[in-house]
């Protein structure tokens, strides 16, 4: 690949993220990224300083994208139990199939190792929980803290799906969350039958 003279940090970090997903976090080096994006390894070192900073910058960009997607969904779904299920189902589509989900867990490991990235994860948990909580404000008898409870159910359903990945992950999540809403939040009413 001929060397490119210019490439934005955004484009470089997108290439780094693809490389991490395709080959695992350990595969991300300045040399492999140089091959993937067409800039020289020395240019990349000048921009990012160290491999640790490159990984952090790559994953901070991924958190930025997730924050944007979550905020966009929160702004468009109905403020109902069905809206909460729709939001989490939409977020689940990004996981893809089982191989992509499993590879994503390797990347999550990198988030958990870095205090700054863990902090971003904690901030996203709070934002997601608040957005879900907002969907239940008009639902009679919805317990306080339902947003975090539903987010936790979502994460659990993703994990259980991964052990027996039959069908699309978002369908599995939708079914699991509808049962959660029906059993825990408002007995006798499924999320899909809520007004919305």
TrEMBL record:
Q: Which PROSITE patterns match?
A: HTH_TETR_2
Among its keywords, does the record have Transcription regulation? yes
Q: Which residues form the HTH tetR-type domain?
A: 6-66
InterPro entries, per this entry?
Homeodomain-like_sf, HTH-type_TetR-like_transc_reg, HTH_TetR
Known DNA-binding region? 29-48
Against Gene3D superfamilies, the record matches this protein to: Tetracycline Repressor, domain 2
Q: What is this protein called?
A: AcrR family transcriptional regulator
> What species does this protein belong to?
Inquilinus ginsengisoli
